[in-house]
Design brief:
Layout (H helix, E strand, L loop, with lengths): L13 E5 L2 E5 L12 E4 L2 E4 L1 E6 L5 E7 L4 E7 L12 E10 L2 E10 L5 E10 L5 H5 L10 E2 L4 E6 L2 E6 L4 E3 L9 E8 L4 E11 L5 E2 L11 E4 L2 H16 L1 E4 L2 E7 L11 H10 L6 H12 L19 E2 L4 E4 L2 E3 L2 E2 L5 H14 L4 H4 L3 H13 L44 E2 H20 L5 H19 E4 L2 E4 L2 E2 L5 E2 L17 H11 L2 H4 L24 E2 H14 L2 H17 L7 E2 L21 H15 L1 E4 L4 E4 L10 E8 L2 E7 L5 E4 L6 E4 L20
Parallel strand pairs: 33-37
Antiparallel strand pairs: 1-2, 2-3, 3-4, 5-10, 6-7, 7-8, 8-9, 9-16, 10-15, 11-12, 12-13, 13-16, 14-15, 17-19, 18-34, 19-20, 21-24, 22-23, 25-28, 26-27, 28-29, 30-31, 32-33, 34-35, 35-36
Helix pairs in contact: 2-13, 2-14, 3-4, 3-5, 3-14, 4-5, 5-7, 5-8, 7-8, 8-9, 12-13, 12-14
Length: 707
């Protein structure tokens, strides 16, 4: 029997990132030559091993914790050293920090023993320069032979990348059997109650990388937050640290910052992910949105190319330095356009950034790209001319599914049968309706023609959606997940319908029914929103897109529910998301299991999920916006306040939000009454009515944290 090649697991690894560089090791701090452990730079593994030993023995793992936005500290014991007795008296602290194109480790041996301590510290190093797609597919790469240079220096080079390790004061052994696993060695002598410290450094020279670390500090604000529910404060703090580490720019355009999608597989430009993350970050300023819009506008499609999925006006899906071929016949070109939704999301981000105060002089240069995106929507998004947006992979080696649920089995009927392409996704029709309306508003505001045409386009899309998508389900009428090749409704109940809220595609009554569906235990009974209902045959709690919980999906939908006034379901999802955040030490993974909350009292990890991940981390800002209820329309001269905070979520006070470049504060008391300060004078504030009989806030529950 042939053994299957499996994608390596991530859930028990400890990651640290300063894009485009990241490091993944085990809970003890070791980087072992197995799975996805290693140091990565852009799309290559630049270090595949870094194993610490003391007297040729591994320290016993004791603890680990964050050491700032780009660092982690590990503590281990060497109980064979020091005083005899039950209490350990010698420990090893290992501080790992990542920088753009580099990594440093400081190793400190600390003694509280009454006797001198002598030991030999060593690090075994290896480098394989494996491409990320080989690692992702569970493949192996041979370690390269190290070259020695100056004392304490090792080097490797291949594929245009040069990797150097420097360890001051260390001796190196790279001869014979150690040519591919060289050892750095330091002898140490400690007096009673003494300590010693050694260090080593990794540097990467990668002139062919397509993404780089942008200069300076993040342009977004870092709000001061007080909240009755301290989970929200911790979630926001950790998420902003992670988002800081995920900042990227294109080589040659360092001023336009976007967020890399996630560690380790997707630390590059991803149209959909980068756009959604920037959209959720708008309460902290518009600079990230501007950079994301610009970098994607520069790569906007100009021609029809079935091999790459490119079409005039279309927005890129992902960018790599070379073809991405992880297996199973999937081969994506370096610049790949196989996404059905990124183009509409680009339009909607431009509109929303404008509403948050993006100045006209920054909007205007992007208007030709807006018109090109709308042209794609009208001329290329509807291949069969039925007035709905569909997708199909014509290359035969691209993504079979091209919405955000892009795994091959993501689109299933209620009985579990896979839908055949071309596929017409429900939420994509919502994005298209929203983009047409938002595009029309932008065109008219800046004196450009076409507004009426796009409003008519949106109205027709709403009529066609209403006629084609609504089906009977176990909880009453529901929008189907999609239409298949024969235009049959794919009748499973999924989280996709939550993305329709607020797009204008649904009537008031239809939005209320969607909110009721989202509130069923079949969808919201986990730590967040399940991607598929437990009633559907295709449901599996650890299915990538058919039963798991995705953090960004939950955050987007709870934000939509809160904005539309469906407080109870929004609060249920918010509590689930905060519970998951606490269980994962406030660094939410890309996704996790969709098991019922009662199974373990904490979410089950999805073992191959990216962590940290941009739109999962940005979900903390989305939750903060929903809590404060701050919804500005700067061009319209209004700000709406409709906070989710109050009796159940507790009081919230946020300082340093950003509207039209002005620092804004929002305070919501325990009764749900909001107060806003710092708004520009020309904006008029309206406040939604506070619920007259607020539900009492439940008593705090035990919230387990990750060990």
């Amino acid at each position: 029997m042939t053994e299957r090649q499996l994608q390596p697991l991530l859930h028990e690894l400890v990651g640290v990132v300063r894009a485009p560089t990241s490091a993944l090791g085990d809970l003890a701090g070791q980087i072992r030559p197995t799975g996805v452990q290693g140091v990565f730079h852009a799309d290559a593994r630049v270090l595949s091993r870094a194993e610490l030993r003391v007297d040729d023995r591994e320290p016993e793992s004791l603890a680990r914790g964050s050491a700032g936005p780009h660092g982690v500290r590990f503590v281990g014991l060497t109980r064979w050293l020091g005083d005899p007795g039950p209490d350990p008296t010698v420990r090893v602290e290992r501080l790992r920090r990542v920088s753009p194109g580099g990594l440093t480790e400081e190793i400190r041996i600390v003694s509280t023993a009454s006797v001198p301590v002598r030991a030999v510290l060593s690090i075994d190093i290896a480098c394989d320069l494996a491409p990320i797609e080989v690692v992702k597919a569970g493949g192996a790469a041979e370690a390269l032979e190290a070259k020695t240079g100056r004392p304490g220096e090792l080097a490797w080079a291949a594929a245009g990348i040069t990797v150097t390790v420097t360890a001051e004061g260390a001796t190196t052994d790279s001869t014979g059997g150690r040519a591919t696993t060289p050892r750095l060695t330091w002898p140490v002598e400690l007096p009673p109650r003494g300590r010693a410290e050694v260090s080593w450094r990794l540097d990467v020279d990668d002139p062919r990388a397509v993404v780089v670390c942008p200069p300076g500090e993040p342009a977004w604000s870092r709000p001061g937050l007080r909240a009755d529910d301290r989970r929200l404060v911790r979630f926001l703090d950790r998420s902003l640290d992670d988002l800081r580490g995920l900042r990227l720019a294109e080589a040659g355009a360092p001023e336009d910052v976007f967020l890399g999608a996630g560690v380790p597989w997707f630390l590059t430009l991803f149209g959909r992910d980068s756009l959604w993350a920037a959209r959720m970050m708008l309460p902290l300023g518009t600079d990230l949105a501007t950079g994301t819009l610009r970098v994607l506008a520069r790569r906007q499609g100009t021609r029809v190319d079935p091999a790459t999925g490119e079409a005039p006006g279309k927005i890129l899906h992902e960018l790599r330095r070379h073809e991405f071929a992880p297996g199973d016949g999937l081969r994506l070109p370096p610049a790949y356009y196989g996404t059905v939704d990124a183009t509409m999301l680009w339009v909607n981000l431009l509109h929303d950034a404008w509403c948050w105060g993006l100045p006209a002089e920054q909007v205007e240069p992007l208007l030709p790209h807006l018109e090109a995106a709308l042209h794609w929507l009208g001329a290329h998004a509807d291949a069969d001319g039925d007035g709905l947006v569909e997708y199909v992979d014509t290359s035969e080696h691209g993504l079979a599914n091209q919405g955000w649920k892009d795994s091959g089995d993501a689109v299933r009927f209620r009985d579990g049968t896979l839908a055949a392409p071309p596929i017409v996704l429900a939420e994509v029709q919502g994005y298209a309706h929203e983009a047409a309306v938002n595009g029309a508003r932008l065109l008219e505001a800046f004196g450009r023609p076409g507004g009426d045409r796009w409003r008519e386009h949106a109205a027709g899309l709403a009529r066609r959606f209403r006629a084609a998508f609504w089906v009977d389900g176990p909880y009453g009428p529901q929008p189907a997940l999609a239409l298949d090749r024969e235009k049959r409704p794919v009748d499973s109940l999924t989280s996709n319908i939550g993305h329709l809220l607020g797009t204008g595609l649904l009537s008031t009554e239809e939005e209320a029914q969607v909110a009721r569906l989202l509130g069923t235990d079949a969808l919201s009974g986990a730590f967040g929103l399940r991607t598929m209902s437990t009633d559907d045959t295709g449901f599996s709690p650890l299915s990538y897109h058919c039963g798991s919980v995705w953090a960004h999906d939950t955050a987007i939908v709870l934000g939509n529910l809160a904005r539309a006034g469906f407080r109870d379901t929004a609060l249920t999802l918010a509590d689930g998301l905060l519970g998951a955040a606490e269980a994962f030490d406030y660094r939410l993974p890309e996704l996790y299991g969709g098991d019922d909350r009662s199974l373990l009292g904490r979410p089950v990890p999805y073992p191959a999920a990216c962590r940290p991940q941009a739109w999962a981390a940005a979900g903390a800002v989305q939750l903060l916006q929903a809590a404060t209820g701050l919804y500005p329309d700067v061009p319209g001269g209004t700000v709406r306040l409709a906070p989710l905070a109050g009796a159940r979520l507790g009081a919230v006070a946020a300082e340093g939000l950003s509207v039209a470049g002005a620092p804004v504060g929002v305070t919501v008391d325990r009764a749900g009454h909001p107060t806003v300060t710092g708004l520009p004078a020309h904006l008029t504030v309206t406040v939604d009515a506070v619920p007259t009989v607020p539900a009492p806030r439940p008593a705090p529950a035990d919230h387990p944290v990750e060990g």
